[in-house]
Amino acid sequence: ATTSCQTIYHITSIEGNAIKTASSKTYEITNSLGSEIGLYKTVDNDGDTYYYRGDVKNNNVKFAGFYWKIIRVNGDGSIRLIYNGDHANATGQETSVVSNTAYNLYARDQAYVGYMYGDNFSETPIKSNEITYTELSENQALTLATGFSNDNSTKTFTLTGNTYNSTIKNLGSKLNEGYKYFCKENNCKIIIEIKSINSPTSIQMYYHAYSSTSYEGTRENTASSNAKIQLENWYTNTFSNKTENGFNATNYVNTGGTFCNDRSLSSGNGFSLDSKTMYNSRIRILQDKKPTLVCKDVEQDLFSAKGSSGKGNKKLEKPIGLITADEASFAGGLVNEQNNNYYLRTGQLYLTMTPDRFETTSPGAMLYQVAASGAYAQFFAGYLLVGLRAVINLKSDVLLAGGNGTMDDPYTVKLAS
Which of 93, 169, 212, 309 could lock onto 99 through a cystine, CB 3.0 to 4.6 A? Predict the structure, then answer.
C-alpha cells in the first residue's frame, strides 16, 4: 500500500559538488523501497536538503574512530551523521552510544516530551480528574497509607498516618478504613489515591502531583532531559577525546547544527494532568503521511548549541542530538509496520526526539521510536530503557576525502585547506 503525500526530487546526476539534475516525483511511504533507494531532495529551515532513502549502501563514514551513516546534507551545507558503532557492520546495542537509558526519568507531565523542558511546576500539588488506572499486576504488593504530605522544595510526597501492605485484590475493607494512598514510584513524585476497585489489576483513582501550569511553561527549556545529559556526557568524555588527521574531532563539528524537538500542538492545551495532548507530528506522520524537515518553532523547538551563530534556541551545552521521526520517515520508516529495507534499521529499539502525544492515563508522555524491526511507533518517554544513537553535523567545508561510502570502504573526512 502507498500513501501519497508531497513532492520530492530524486537526484539523478551529481558532477563534483554540484547537483546538476533532479527528477520530480511524488513522495510515498511504501511497503517496499526497492525502487526508491537513493538520494532525494526536499527543504529544511536553511534551504534545500539532500537525504538518503531506502537500503542505501554508500552513506557510510568513518570518523573519529567511529562509524556513522549520513542521514542528509542539510540546507546550510553541513553533513548530518548518525552514530553506527565503533566497528564495521555493528548491529543492535553496538549502534548506540548509550544502549539502555530513559529519554526522561518521568512521564507524568507534558513537559517530559521535551529534549529540554520547563520544570517550574505549580507550588502546590494538583489533583487530577478521576481516571482508570491499569498499570498494576495482580500480585503487586503496595504500601498503602491513610494520608500523605508534600514537600514544595523537592516536589515529592511522603506517606503519613497508618500503613498497610497489600495487593489490590486483597485490600478489601481496608479501603473503606482509609488505606487508599500509595506512591507511584520509589521517589514518590506522584501519589495515587484509590477511589474504587474495578478488578485485581484496575482501579478508579486520582493523581496527586506537581504539574506544569501552562503550555509555554513546558517549553521554557531550563531543565535537561536524561537523553540530553547522556549524549552530552558521551560527547564530552568520549567523542571530544578523539582526533582525525591530527585535529581534535570537535573541530569538524558544526557548532551551529540544529535538532528539532517539535512540540507544536494539534489538539489539547499542552499542559496539566487532565489534558490529553496530541502533537502535530502525530497528524502529519501517522495520519496524513506528510513528514517535514522544517522545524515549526525555531525559537523554542529548534535546538542549537550555546554561543553558536545561525538559527536555533542556543540552549545545548554540546552540538549533539537525536534523529527525528520525520527523518526516519523520509529514510523509509513505516509507522507500526516492519521495514527491513532501509539503512536506519539496526535490530535495536532506539529513540527519536519527536513527541507523539500525552495521555492522561498511562503511559503519559510519549515520543516516537525506531523499533528493532525497523518500524517506528509511539513510545513511552520515561522509565523504559532504550538506545540513544548520537546525531552530529559536520561543518559545511568538511570534505569527504576517501572511500566510496560502502561499509567496507567508508568515506573518510578532512578539513578544507
Answer: 93
**Cβ density class 244-263: b for 16+ within 10 Å, e for less:** beeeebbebbbbbbbbbbbb
DSSP character for 216?
H
User: Cα–Cα distance between 58 and 51 in angstroms, integer?
Assistant: 12
CB-based contact 304:319 (threshold 8 Å):
yes
- Rounded to whole angstroms, the Cα distance separating 60 from 67 reads 7
Identify the residue whose cell numbers are 571530544: 240
Class of residue 201 by CB neighbours under 10 A (exposed 0-12, middle 13-18, buried 19+): middle
Which residues have C-beta within 8 Å of that of residue 241, sequence separation ≥ 6?
A: none
Residues 33, 55: Cα–Cα separation, whole Å: 8
Indicate the residue type of 172: G
DSSP string covering 220-283: ---EE-HHHHHHHHHHHHTGGG-EETTEEGGGGB-TT--EE----EEES-S-STT--EEEHHII
Please write the tens of the pLDDT for every residue from 192-243: 999 999 999 999 999 999 999 999 999 999 999 999 999 999 999 999 999 9
